[in-house]
Design goal:
Blueprint lengths: L4 H15 L7 H15 L14 H9 L10 H16 L7 H13 L4 H8 L5
Helix pairs in contact: 1-2, 1-3, 1-4, 1-5, 2-4, 4-5, 4-6
């Protein structure tokens, strides 16, 4: 998926917001988060950790309008990828916490991922 440099940063901040939902990022999650951020958007995690937390609506607004109006990506594509990446990172500790699951849900729904697809992606790890 081709994202502009600004949208890459917002995507990474959204992923960080999901992983931080319970308040902290443990060592295993940190390693996977750094790996996924580098692989997906070509940024280093250290550059992003001090950024303020991103709300789902901000990511949606960036995709739909504003300075990123020319993006050729559909919000639900971003939602699917974000859920997949969040699962990869959070499962480093062996489970997804309720807080992480709820935050994943909020981003997925804001980005237009249908509830059935969210459940298909997460049913093994979320009740």
């Amino acid at each position: 998926m081709l994202l502009s440099e600004d949208l890459k940063q917002l995507y990474a901040r959204a992923l960080i917001a999901i992983v931080r939902a319970e308040g902290s990022i443990d060592a295993e999650e940190g390693e996977r988060l750094a790996e996924r951020v580098e692989a997906r958007v070509g940024l280093t995690l250290e550059d992003l950790l001090l950024s303020r937390s991103l709300q789902p609506e901000e990511l949606v607004d960036a995709i739909h309008g504003g300075p990123f109006r020319g993006e050729s990506v559909r919000p639900e594509q971003v939602g699917r990828l974000l859920v997949e990446d969040a699962l990869y990172v959070t499962l480093a500790k062996g489970h997804v916490t309720p807080e992480e699951g709820h935050r994943m849900w909020r981003y997925a729904m804001a980005l237009g991922l249908c509830p059935e697809e969210f459940r298909t992606l997460t049913h093994r790890w979320l009740p």
